[in-house]
Design brief:
Blueprint: H1 3-24
């Protein structure tokens, strides 16, 4: 039941990391 919340938190972290990487410079 609490898995959904964990997934959401993970997605938030992922989005933040993507934003951070895009700001620092494209790695791809």
């Amino acid at each position: 039941m609490g898995n959904g919340r964990l997934c959401l938190q993970f997605l938030k972290k992922l989005r933040f990391s993507i934003l951070f990487f895009s700001c620092t410079g494209p790695v791809w």
